[in-house]
Each structure stands twice: as structure tokens, then as C-alpha cells.
């Protein structure tokens, strides 16, 4: 699980954390101070994080989104900064560490969020940051918009010269926009990618971070925590979580989220991890699965954590993680099958057989046809065609539409050969 230094290294590797001032701020401000105490295990995860322990909580931005926005502010000593929307107070604290707490003003119109932010700012040592219910009659060198305030409504609060950074709206929704005020004129610039992480001619050939992709993933992650379904992908990822935990200890019918918020948070962290895994961000996904496990251990999270290891080619680590899943919940069939599948990849066919047989006999497994088909793969590679045929027929009795089993059976019956 990532610690603060690991996250700093990740952000620097992406080319998002580019200045010494922001790096020092990130290392000095404790993110734990701005999270619910129960959710301490989530600190320094690179995803949107819940601001309170309740159903469908508001979130603070992921570290990468937040650092990208702060970098675009071109921070320097002496600046006066306005933050529209507290997002838990953490963004304001990072800015205060760079330019000084007395030079940062946070505006939050929601009373509950504002009071929570004031308390956390005070506890973290940032009581000199002003947290206000409405816009002050002042001007600022920089404005960072983190709420739904239309950026152009804040132009009167910009010094001249000065500029504002916000997420775009409408056609610019997946980009940052910069509104510049200079000599009475206003100019808008759109950023579709991060500034180049290197100077021209440098041997480092990293591509700048694509803000469109960053925001697309960020929205899915935030929706997972906030319980929002705004489209097909949100519904898909929610359905995966419901199906995966069905009948187990973290089934929503098995506990009361209001009484056991860590279990609910573990489900949401799992959904975030699966989104990241689906996006190909395997290191972030593995970290998020670990957070889910820290909040409430589950066989499901251990099994999917193992799955990310397998995508990295780390089959031995995947097998060990599946064994942890079995220790947490021996009734869950997935890790038995997955151990068998990983052993097949390692060409340890005889070792795979007993694990696949245990998957078939597990009390809770939504996909018994996977284990039957994997067992058939082993038998085919061992030249035991009739046993393989019986396993495939068993798979198709469970799921008559499972194409891989249909195809292997056609090959056996047609003597077309087999390719593992």
C-alpha cells in the first residue's frame, strides 16, 4: 500500500509534481487530518477520497487531479489565493503551506462542509486560513475553482493581472481552463494535457498526461464513492460489485452501512480498484484493492488484487494473494479457480487440478463453468481428451452460452486439434 513518499514518486514520475514548493507542501501536510478517522487507511491513495463516513459522501479530488490543478496556478511567494469549494480543506492546506495560511481564503456555501473544514483546518494547524460562507469583497492573484461556481462569475474577484484555474464546462468538460485577466481584458486558454514534464532536448521522452483521460477516469472513481450513476459505465461497474459480493459478508443485505461504514467504504474502494484495473492502471488498482482490504478484509478484494498481479505477470504473488482470500472466506470459489488458472500459466498442470476441483465444489461461486473449462484445458494438455470432453459438457450445463467451452468441445469432436 502506497505511503506518502510512494505517491510523491508516482506524481513526479507522471510529470505532474514539478516544483519544489508543491513537493514540500505535499510532504508536510498530512492527508489523514482531512479524512474521517475511520478512513485513515485511505490516506495517500491516488483516487478521489470520501470526506465523511456516511452514505454517498462528497469527495476530495485524487492526488493527480489536485496536483495538476495546483501546478497550473504557477505558485510563488506573495500570491493571494481564493479557493471556491473546500473539498474537505486539503487543497487549501496544500496552498497555505506554499504561500502562507494568511494569504489563502476558502469559500464554502454548504454549512456542514464549511464547519467540518474549519475544524479540520484548525486541528491540522491551519487555523489562519479563512473559511468563509460567501465571496469576500476582495481581489486575488489566483483563483482555484473546485465547486460548481461558473468560472466567469468570479472574474470580478480576480486581480489585474491575475488568473483563474477550473475544470472546463460543456465541450471543455475533460480539460482545465485558465481565465486570464490583464489590462482589463479577459483571455481563456484550454489545457487538454499537462505541461511538458521536461525541457526541450531532454532525453526523457515521457508523454504529458492527457487531461481528457485523467478526468474520464476521475469521474468514474468519484461516482463510485458518491453513489452516482450517470451512464452505462457507472452502472456496469456498480453491477460488477453487486454480483461479486452477492451472498458474501459484504453483500449489502448482510450489513447496515450506517452501522458499519468501513464495510461500505471497502465496497466502494473495491469498485474504484476495479475501475482502475479496467482502465489498465494496474499499480493504482492494486493499491486500491489493498485499501479495501484494510477497511474490511474480504475474499473478493484479495482475489481481485491477485488478478492485478497476474496482469503484471506476477503469478507467484497472485497465488499467494488467492490463498489469503481463501483464509478470509473459504466458501468463495473464485480464488480456487484462479490459483488453478495461474498454475496452468506456470505449466504446473498436476498442481492445478486439485484447486480447480475445489472451485467446482465451493459453496459460493458465480462462475463454476470457468473451473470446469480450466480443468478441461489441463486434461487436453495432458492428452486426456475424454476427461476434457466431460469437463466441457459440465461447463456448458452450467452456462450453455459459454463460447470458450463450446469452441474447445468443437475442436475435440471435430479432431481439429487444441491450442492452449
Walk me through the structure.
The chain is an alpha/beta fold and 420 residues long. The chain folds into two domains: 4-191, 3-Layer(aba) Sandwich (Rossmann fold), CATH 3.40.50; 211-416, Serine Threonine Protein Phosphatase 5, Tetratricopeptide repeat. 49% of the residues lie in helices and 11% in strands. The protein has 16 helices and nine strands. It has helices at 4-13, 20-28, 63-72, 90-99, 111-123, 211-226, 232-245, 261-278, 282-295, 299-311, 315-328, 334-345, 349-361, 368-381, 385-398, 403-414; strands spanning 49-50, 59-60, 81-84, 104-107, 130-132, 140-145, 158-167, 176-182, 185-191. The strands form two sheets. Strands 5-4-3-6-7-8-9 form a seven-stranded mixed beta sheet, with helices on one face. Strand 3, helix 4 (90-99) and strand 4 form a beta-alpha-beta unit. Helix 6 packs antiparallel against helix 8 and helix 15 runs antiparallel to helix 16 (403-414). It starts with a helix and ends in a 6-residue tail after the last helix. Residues 199-203 have low confidence and may be disordered.
